[in-house]
Amino acid sequence: MPLGLTAVAPALFAGVVAVARFAVGARPDVPVVPLLLGGSGAAALGTVLLAVAPTPWLALLGLSLAAAGTAVLFPTVLKGSVGHLDEGVRGRATSLVSTTAYLGFLLGPVYVGQLSDAADLRGAMLGVAALAVLFAVVVRPVLSRARS
Question: Which of the listed CATH numbers 3.40.350.10, 3.30.450.40, 1.10.357.20, 1.20.1250.20 matches domain 3-147?
């Protein structure tokens, strides 16, 4: 892959995340569970495409799709898990959800690095896609429990 093209990847990811968050933020009427399922599905599909892409351009397309999918996950999880709570406990619940998310943010690179050592970077990306699929499987029961 040309060096200039590799430098584009982080900027592309950040740009797609920003656009996706603004777009979803402008539509507060979108239901939480379908948005989380769609986001995790897009993240999984994009990451698989990134892992198996035969060309740099397809890899960037996969990266863009993964970015759009992951962009909606944290704000939507936050809204779905604490939005219904009383103001007296909402702050504490927001801290708990945010801390859990930040732990994932810190441990994610370790997860990818360990998978890369065990397989290769493509295998690690498939492992990330598997996490997105797992998220889609558990989102409904976890949110149901959080709302009760």
Answer: 1.20.1250.20
